[in-house]
Amino acid sequence: MATFVDHVTLHLRAGHGGNGCVSVRREKFKPLAGPDGGNGGHGGDIVLVADPQVTTLLNYHRGPHRSSDNGGPGMGDHRAGANGEELELPVPVGTVVKDTEGNELIDMSEPGIRYVVAPGGLGGLGNASLATTKRKAPGFALLGTPGIERDVYLELKTVADVALVGYPSAGKSSLIAALSAARPKIADYPFTTLHPNLGVVEAGGNRYTIADVPGLIEGASEGKGLGLEFLRHVERCTALLHVIDTATLDPGRDPLSDLDVILGELAAYPVPEGQKPLLERPQLIALNKIDVPEGRELAEFVRPELEERGYRVFEISSATHEGLRQLSYALAELVEQGRVEAASQPVKERIVIRPKAVDEGGFVVKVEGGSFGNVYRVIGAKPERWVAQTDFANDEAVGFLADRLAKLGVENALFKAGAIAGSTVVIGPGTSIVFDWEPTLTSTAELITAPRGTDARLDGGGRATRNERREDYLARMDAKAAARAELLTERAAGIWQEDGGVDMTRAERDALAEAGAQVETEEKGE
Which residue ranges does the record assign to the OBG-type G domain (predicted)? Predict the structure, then answer.
């Protein structure tokens, strides 16, 4: 059964917010004393906490599904619902949190760091909070928003000052047991160490940690053996200690070739951006197992050549503790130098404030093609949250949503994107709420597409008023009088004659007769 896990995928579900309450206070002689519905409680957050007492992700390997409590619903008499309890998940120091796409969210490299990985949903407002001077008794309340549901990837990178590197069975576990109080499993077969072991060493008033990690073989940087599992835990170490077996019985191996293979794998492993490459960090060499006569002889033989390469070399024996004191003091010196260098570096900023632009509307409208015409999708935190808070079974709540969207400028943005009355509008990603857009009469003049001075939305098909009918009748009478006068003028000019000199239609003769009768009447009146 596994006892150490350094990478795991968590499936998280934060608590949902509670719904607001619709209630009207009733008192004696006051059946409707005003709204008193309380707000819903907020859902519980899921928080990752860097805990020095935790050394493995084993608990999350066995139980990857975690959820926090939901918020309670609001109640009458202005009683708010209870907030959901926050769920804290302790993780080892050095845990890197990534999303499903591999993007790093946070590096929890220091004890006490807290990170809200899944925020809980917001509680809905009750009708008491929605009351205004114009809407004194709202008959609706807002629903609670759902909590965030997401998957995150946790990757543990051991935080230690010194990493012991070397071939399997080189004596790394024996060395950490001899230098510290750690008691790792020790055996005489390769890959005995399957997970990192940490030990604390005190030397010359300095205290530092050393990490015993799985052995390294040729091709480890390409995934052979436990190479990648090993190299991940070396990224954060200040110094490296090469533990070389001088008493190996494997054919074709010697201290120099072993060192060259290890250096080649360290050089091939890419470290994260901003970190020093592995081969540029301080390194020491420990020629182990000199308690064996052949091992001591070989260590004395290769030591001059290693020193010519620029390494400090120590001949040690984990079994008899020979040379361990000098080695521990040398490691303490390297660690102290690394700490001084790190203290001189500028402090890493952890909080980045990105103010919102002044002209940012908080949403965008995307035009998507569909089988029955364009689909206009509105993407934004506010519109999506407002839709999630709306009870679509309540007409008053739907009208409140329409007012909020109009004030945010969604209608103007839809018009600019080319939407017309009846267009399909979707708010939110995926298969969200679908609307048939009907522009309101209170929208701005940019929505008016009729000729200037008119508005097609205001044209009514109702019955004309008395004044309108009178004006229409007088206009028709004026037109007839003008036509008669024109005919009389043409007759006086000799353009046509009444006896048939000019061919006329029946309508023209009737109009001429009517005009002549009117002229005679006027002459008699004079």
Answer: 160-336
